[in-house]
Amino acid sequence: MKNFIHVVFAGGGTGGHLFPGLAVAQQLAAQIRGMRITFAGSGKDFERRHVTAAGFEYLALPCRPLPRGAREALSFVVENFAGYLAARRFLADEQVDTVVGLGGYASVPMGRAASRHRVPLVLLEQNALPGRANRWLARSASLVCTSFPQTEVLLAGRCAVRLTGNPVRRGASSQLANLRQANDGIGTPGKLKTCPTLLVLGGSGGARTLNENAPRTFHKVRNLLDGWQIIHQTGEAGLAATRELYRKFALAATVEPFLPDLPQLLTAADAVVCRAGGTTLAELAVAGVPAVLVPYSQAKDDHQRCNAEVFVAQGAATLVDEREITGRLDDRLAEVVATLVRDEGLRISMSAAMLDLARPHAAADVAGLVWSLASSRARRDGRSPRVIDAA
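The chain above was modelled as a monomer; its predicted structure follows.
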């Protein structure tokens, strides 16, 4: 009988779901000898690439999101049932001690199999409003780790809930935020680089609205951006068109489909224009970056606006809701960006408010909870798991 602990992280698809899982997995791997870690996802190249780069095993399972119409219903049932059966076989054959659900439809086959196979299930909820997958799995979960205080009320009575914060990647650490404070004031522009920096982030998949409107916005306030550098993450699909817009407006900008060194870039940024996904907000908070938040208006249950309102209420961000704008989005964005660029004092106060919202130890806290459940199960099975090596 093997004595190592085996933890499976289920889900992914987007960086918002995958990166918190990778943060916890890296924490576990750094602290525990001989731990086996597997990520089970939808088979997307994005998941596989990042999991493999982090040095963990990857398992692709058949799965599909909820059908949009009757024509997709049969394939939804068939693929998800096949994923569930494959997950059950994996749990039975590979001696899994705990499953960590990362949210989204890709977490469902393994999460459901864990509950049926009596394997402890921990859910990570990145957003203020729990996603449908986590709401459905919560009744059979051992624990839900939340990022916002109000989430506990929405999950009351379903399972145990712990406010841990949203785990962030190891590069986005409190040490980086402390570097900001050490450089002559929280978030003081220009102290970590030769020129102030404005970031545009649409998430790992990009955001068409931001890709189309950010260059137009910056063109309208270009006189205020003299001496600033612009860095824009577009996603693969929006790369060419966005680069062309910056070229059309004769704006110098670094435009990339994905920014692997984003945690470090956030630490050096003076302002960010971005969506309001839970993982993006967690990384902004740890880095202490003032933000202009443009929630994804088609997000299910409007969860991004719910996230954004928490940060706006604390004075850490400004909200631009495209559904409430009567004119052009780029006009409204230009007004907000102009105010932020002009007012260094405002940026400093927003940066301090961001840091107040940060939970930089979330990955370590979640890892400790996962280890507790996994090691308890191993001991019940008569195994003696290797103990934590302090990192």
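The first helix runs from residue 15 to 31.
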